[in-house]
Amino acid sequence: MKKIHVSFCIIIFLFIATLIICINYSSASAKDFNEYKNLLKQTLANENWQEMNRISDDVIKFYPDNDFGYFFKGIAMDELGEYEKAISYYTKALEIKPNLPDIFQNRGLAYYHNKQYDEAIADYKKALELNPNFELAKEQIQVAINAKKGIVVSKNGNVTNYQSVNDPFYLVSEYKNMPKSKKKEIINSVKNSSSDILPIYYIAVSEDVYSNNNKLAAYLYVLGRYRTIQDVAVCKDNSAAQAISALPFIAPKTSQYISKMDKKDLAKLLQKVLDWDEKHPNRPEPKWICYHGMEVFMNNGNVTTVSQKEWDTRKDKIKQSVIKYIEELQEK
Predict the structure, then answer these.
(1) Which of 62, 101, 210, 221 has the fewest CB atoms nearer than 10 Å to its CB?
(2) String of b and e for 103-140 (b: at least 16 CB within 10 Å)?
(3) Domain presence at residue 221
């Protein structure tokens, strides 16, 4: 009985000692607040979003009543593509400091990235109300207003370019600038042949996988191109067809590789794509490609399409022309 009693006392002693050590370690691991501020500013300057994410967690843990940790956590989440989480952390920062224009401006940017344009505009307005000379907020609110109208305006020297936010080439530019986690989602959707993924992404992804698997890249490119040619046939606006000639610029290495393929191999590849298309009738709404045409700017951001019957007829003609081309390649 004495041995058991002694052992129990030792266990209690060890538990208390461990608890004290943990508490002391936790307190010791908390840095001075100014040190945290300098570390976070450094991660911002270096655009090290993962490190910013980690350090801001520590700031929130040790200084939960300060807005600084939540603010930088919001920046990290936004840059890592977690827009809804970014909005949540900015909102928490505003609960602590409700009159800081920088927080409203940054939350506005997260709303913009999440395509919540009304909310973005409201936050930019609040930032400008608090600081009328906030130049960045002035620029960003105009971008959000244009996006709400369905237009992206960019300048190249003295030339002003207008593009629909639904233009497939604008979608590709967004894809190329996505955080790795978001990009990976699209790549996986393409590899899994998700029925809701736009054909333009097959072409964009083909270039990303080219260095590891040029045959897969070629397959994805041809598949995306074939579906794009089919889909552009639905557009009443013939200018949308200009997109086809620009597709190689999205995946230059892959398109160059295909151009040098053996004719028999190309025939097999085209047949494989036709077989896939036959087995996968479900697809996104085809009018996505019509937003590349001029109609979108003359029709308040809208596009028009031909009837389903007419589109089916056009698609069949496209299919027959590909079948004929495959036969020609096999004969050579």
Answers:
(1) 62
(2) bbbbbbbbbbbbebbebbbbbbebbbebbeebeebeeb
(3) yes
| Structure confidence by residue, pLDDT tens digits, 235-253 | 999 999 999 999 999 999 9
Domain boundary among 144, 163, 182: 163
Neighbours of 98 (CB within 10 A): 12
Which single residue is written with the structure tokens 């072409």?
A: 203
- Measured CA to CA in angstroms, residue 301 lies from 117, 142, 184, 246 at distances of 16, 17, 30, 22
Q: Do residue 305 and residue 181 come from a single domain? A: yes
**Are 69 and 53 found together in one domain?**
yes
The secondary structure of residue 151, as a DSSP letter, is: E
Q: Which residue's structure tokens are 């508490």?
A: 23
pTM of the full structure: 0.75
Q: 217 with 317, same domain?
A: yes
Same domain, 172 and 149: no
Taking only the tens place, the pLDDT of each residue in 133-183 is 999 999 999 999 988 888 887 766 666 677 888 999 999 999 998 888 889
